[in-house]
Amino acid sequence: AGTYIVSGGEEPSDGCLMLKSNVTLSGAGMGETIIKLADGSDTKVTGIVRSAYGEETHDFGMKNLTLDGNRDATTGKVDGWFNGYIPGSDGKDSNVTLDSVEIKDCSGYGFDPHEQTVNMVIKNSVSHGNGLDGFVADYLSDSVFENNVAYDNDRHGFNVVTSTHDFT
C-alpha cells in the first residue's frame, strides 16, 4: 500500500511504467496502492502504465491498484493505461488482464487498449474524472469488459471503436 510518484520518459510511448510479458503489477487494493503522476509533469504520457511499443507482449496486466493522472497539477495529454502493437504491422498483444483497477484524473483516456490486442479482460474496474473516454476498446478481439463503472469522464464512459470484434 502507499502512493508511488512517477514521471514520463522522453517520448510519449515511453509511458511511466512499462510492463513486459509474464508480468502483473499488483497492489493492495483500489485507493490503497496508488501510482500517481508527479506534480508539474508537462509531457505527453501514452500510458502511466503500458506495454512496450513495437513488442509482442503477452500474459501481463495489473490488479488491485489506482492510477492517478493528477490532472489538476499537470499539463500534456496523459492516458492511464495503454497497450497495443504498432498500427498496421504484424504482431499483437495478448492475454491481458486488468482486475480491480481504478483510473482517475487523466487528461486523456482512462483505459486505452489499442491496436491488435487479443484476449483482453478488464473487470471490476472504475474510470472517472478523465478528459476523454473512461474505457476504450480499439481493435480488440476475443475480449471482455465485465462489471466496470465509468462516470464523470469528459467524453464517453465506454467507447467501442475501429475493428473491435468478438467482444462482450
TrEMBL record:
Pathway: Glycan biosynthesis; alginate biosynthesis. GO terms for biological process: alginic acid biosynthetic process. The keyword Isomerase applies. It holds the Pfam family Beta_helix. It catalyses: [(1->4)-beta-D-mannuronosyl](n) = [alginate](n). Residues 93-164 form the Right handed beta helix domain. The keyword Cell inner membrane does not apply. This is mannuronan 5-epimerase.
